[in-house]
Design brief:
Glutaredoxin; four-stranded mixed sheet; globular; binds glutathione
């Protein structure tokens, strides 16, 4: 059996899977495939993920893409952080789909146009609109976390928390005082030793 390969780089959405791999304690190799080098669209990489995005994995010949799907698969396969009952499992799916449909894109647009691009290339209007778009889902999440400590299992950190918190990485650097439950939960998630190791790889 060959070592798991993770395609991507820590500054990309691949950090979501790096965090999980650190939690699972699995041996893995990172195959650096970056957008800047054009490698995400190389014919070699398109054989791994025809969509041309990272992260993607090759798990002993099984190729999979989409950060949330990869994380749900790996957690389930290795029996760690994966809720064992059907309701917990369904909640993990719910939160993973929710964060992708409600927050993944606005967060990226907000950060890319507010921080990452050189000032003259930023679309400031899009950054502001995206930040506004984030407000309702973040309010919803704060409310949910006022009811329970964690998302899928009321008392335990699971893949649902990892998936959502990993998408919200950039909010670690933002004042969330008006959303205290979200702020405390995000800190708890990213304070985990595995999360700190993944974070150290990207910062
Ligand atoms: N929905 C996908 C999005 C993946 C994605 O857009 N990744 C970016 C990097 S963060 C990428 O590969 N961009 C390079 C490209 O599109 O060529 C996921 O969550 O895995």
């Amino acid at each position: 059996m060959s070592k798991l390969k993770l395609y991507g780089y820590p500054q990309s959405r691949a950090v979501r899977t790096l965090w999980l791999l650190e939690e699972l304690g699995l041996p893995y190799d990172v195959v650096e495939v970056t957008m800047a080098s054009g490698a995400t669209r190389s014919s070699e990489f398109l054989k791994i993920n025809p969509a041309g995005h990272v992260p993607a994995i090759d798990d002993d010949g099984f190729k999979l893409s989409e950060s949330m799907a990869i994380n749900l698969y790996l957690a389930k396969k290795h029996g760690k952080l994966y809720p064992s009952d059907p309701h917990g499992e369904a909640k993990a799916w719910q939160w993973s789909f929710w964060v992708m449909s409600e927050l993944d894109k606005p967060i990226v647009n907000w950060i890319v146009n507010g921080v990452i691009l050189p000032v003259e290339q930023r679309d400031t209007k899009l950054a502001l609109q995206s930040r506004e778009e984030m407000e309702w889902p973040l309010h919803v999440l704060n409310g949910e976390l006022g009811e329970r400590k964690f998302l899928a299992d009321p008392n335990a950190f699971t893949i649902a928390d990892l998936n959502v918190a990993s998408v919200l990485y950039r909010l670690l650097f933002v004042d969330l005082k008006d959303k205290p439950h979200l702020e405390a939960w995000l800190k708890t998630c990213w304070d985990r030793p595995a999360a700190k190791r993944a974070r150290a790889m990207r910062e």
